[in-house]
Amino acid sequence: MLLKVNGLETHYGAAQALFGVNLTVSEGEMVALLGRNGMGKTTTISSVCQMVTPTKGTIEFCGHNLNRMPCHKAARLGLGLVPEGRRCFPNLSVLENLSAAARKGAWTLGRIYDLFPRLQERKSQSANTLSGGEQQMLAISRALMTNPKLLVLDEATEGLAPLVRGEIWQAIARLKQEGLSILIVDKTLKELLPLADQAVILEKGESVWTGRPDTLTEEMKDRYLGL
């Protein structure tokens, strides 16, 4: 098991955000984390990556207990986070963004440019001059340049134009096909569910359903996802 989260609870000060999240990700598996807005998806990802400190429960990754581990050490174990809102280094060029994150491994600049040719065309441009879609490509590529064991994507295609969203999904499908383990949050279920091996639904900060996406009924979608 690559990632195992059990009984996760997280607070922001006195306010409790997570009340018992359970999920697992196996090698080469893509797991979709689902739920309406405000149900704890981003907090779960932030807790897994140690951006916020859980107050209860366990997080095991690659045989290591991540509880209270500094986020940079968790990242070095192989957690590659693509955060909501992209958060590229705005005044650095595309190439500088990618080089700053680089660690030795299979993912090189050549592979990145093969995955997203547009980044090679814009390698000398500052990140803040890119379109939203290009910034998302850069954010994903920056995470890949860390050569992660698990790629964690928070709202991978939110706010993107349909054409660019399609390019992002093609890239994610390729990453899955190549065997990269992925934990992903996204609202576009039409593209997400056919790719995912497993789905976990959060409701009010708690895991309420786990299973194969093809067993998720319309009634369940309506009840927990508002679709």
Walk me through what this model shows.
With 227 residues, this protein is of the alpha/beta class. It contains nine helices and ten strands. The chain has helices spanning 41-48, 71-76, 94-101, 109-115, 117-121, 132-144, 162-177, 189-195, 218-225; strands spanning 3-12, 15-25, 30-34, 56-61, 64-65, 79-82, 150-154, 181-185, 198-203, 206-211. The strands form two sheets. A six-stranded mixed beta sheet has the order 6-7-8-3-9-10, sandwiched between helices. A hairpin with a 2-residue loop joins β9 (198-203) and β10. α3 runs parallel beside α6 (132-144). The chain is globular and about 45 Å long.
What's the SSE blueprint?
Blueprint: E1 3-12, E2 15-25, E3 30-34, H1 41-48, E4 56-61, E5 64-65, H2 71-76, E6 79-82, H3 94-101, H4 109-115, H5 117-121, H6 132-144, E7 150-154, H7 162-177, E8 181-185, H8 189-195, E9 198-203, E10 206-211, H9 218-225
Parallel strand pairs: 3-8, 3-9, 6-7, 7-8
Antiparallel strand pairs: 1-2, 1-4, 4-5, 9-10
Helix pairs in contact: 3-6
Proportion of strand residues: 25-35%
> How large is the radius of gyration?
17 Å
* Biggest beta-sheet profile: 6 strands, mixed
**Overall spatial form:** globular
Summed over residues and divided by their number, the pLDDT gives a mean of: 95
Structural class estimated from helices and strands: alpha/beta
Using DSSP, what is the number of strands?
Answer: 10
Q: What low-confidence regions span 5 or more consecutive residues with pLDDT below 50?
A: none
Strand order of the largest sheet: 6-7-8-3-9-10
Count of helix runs:
9
Give the H and E element order. Answer: EEEHEEHEHHHHEHEHEEH
- Percent range of helical residues: 25-40%
* Cα-to-Cα separation, first versus last residue: 32 Å
